[in-house]
Amino acid sequence: MRELEGQVAVVTGGSRGIGRAIALELSRAGASVAVVARSEKRAQDTVDALEGRGAAFGCDVADASRCADLVQAAEERLGPISILVNNAGITRDNVLVRMKDEDWDAVMSTNLRGAFNTTRAVARGMMKRRSGRIINIASVVGLTGNRGQANYAASKAGLVGFTKSVAQELAARGVLANVVAPGFIETDMTAELPDEAREALLGRIPLERFGAPEDVAGAVRFLAGPAASYMTGQVLVVDGGMVM
Ligand code: NAI
Q1: pTM for this model (two decimals)
Q2: What stretches in the chain show pLDDT beneath 70?
Q3: Which residues are designated catalytic?
Q4: pLDDT value, residue 192
Q5: pLDDT digits over 152-203, tens only?
Q6: Is 54 in the pocket of ligand 1 (CB under 6 A)?
């Protein structure tokens, strides 16, 4: 089924990992996809793999004015944006007492401020057209907290509050906003975890495997499509049952 035929999606952090899988999945569903990464060249690699129309954009989501330009450029190339997936995210892990100001600020700027920048930039158009889907990629860590990730967990918990507020503000205009909260997904971000930590984590996952980027992409496709038209302000957890 190509339920997103004729729609235009923006996926931030789309050059690799979960963002790349989301871009490919939305393309399979029929959407044209604007793939955003800090490097336009790396975003282009994903665009080359799309099934239908797409375009690559280089943009640091932490920069508000570049996000406004991005939305304008993407609409000129592909048409009005109907789906925004805020997936760009970074980690700068450390225990609280050793966490540097720069580590706190960098994570907040990309993970939380970045989603604000892009969401504000698309909101007016979506409201005018009385339809749109905003899907923010948080993390189960935003729900539970995690040692060594005070900055990251705070940014992801912040995304949940942000999404629920946006959902309430925009519902009457037909714009829906939801969160996907992945558990442990095999990507470059998680590749460096030591073996003992991986074993310990695996023991906490009832489905007894780590997630794949495609597991998250499936949930995003669902939230972007007609089957989710009565859902807004929700957190969909995709973690093999780790957090219940
Ligand atoms: P990754 O590190 O493999 O990819 C991150 C992507 O974001 C890259 O394309 C990178 O270029 C882009 N990016 C980073 N900073 C950016 C910025 N300032 N502006 C534009 N693009 C930027 O990460 P992964 O694992 O694919 O994660 C994607 C999202 O899923 C992140 O938000 C992450 O926090 C979240 N997540 C990942 C989990 C995992 O286990 N891998 C678990 C839960 C959440």
Answers
A1: 0.98
A2: none
A3: 152
A4: 87
A5: 999 999 999 999 999 999 999 999 999 999 999 999 988 988 999 999 999 9
A6: no
The structure tokens 């080359």 sit at 48
Question: What's residue 168's pLDDT?
Answer: 99
Q: Is 190 in the pocket of ligand 1 (CB under 6 A)?
A: yes
Q: How far apart are CA 25 and CA 19, in angstroms?
A: 10
Residue 57 and residue 88 in contact, taking contact as beta carbons nearer than 8 Å? no
**Any atom of ligand 1 within 6 Å of the Cβ of 19:** yes
Mutation choice for ligand 1 from 59, 187, 215, CB with most ligand atoms inside 8 A: 187
pLDDT for res 147: 96
Ligand 1 pocket: which of 18, 42, 180 to mutate (most atoms <8 Å of CB)? Answer: 18
Find how far residue 24's CA is from the centre of its chain: 14
Residue 198 gets which letter from DSSP? H
pLDDT at 193: 87
User: What pLDDT is stored for residue 189 in this prediction?
Assistant: 87
What residues contact residue 174 under an 8 Å CB cut-off, 6+ apart? 130, 131, 132
Q: Whose CA is nearest to atom 34 of ligand 1?
A: 89
User: 169: closest CA among 222, 116, 221?
Assistant: 116
Q: Which two tokens stand for residue 139?
A: 């993390």
| Residue with CA closest to ligand 1 atom 44 | 139
Cβ of 37 closer than 6 Å to ligand 1, yes or no, is yes
Contact assessment for residue 203 and residue 234, using Cβ atoms and an 8 Å cutoff: no
CA distance 184 to 148: 16
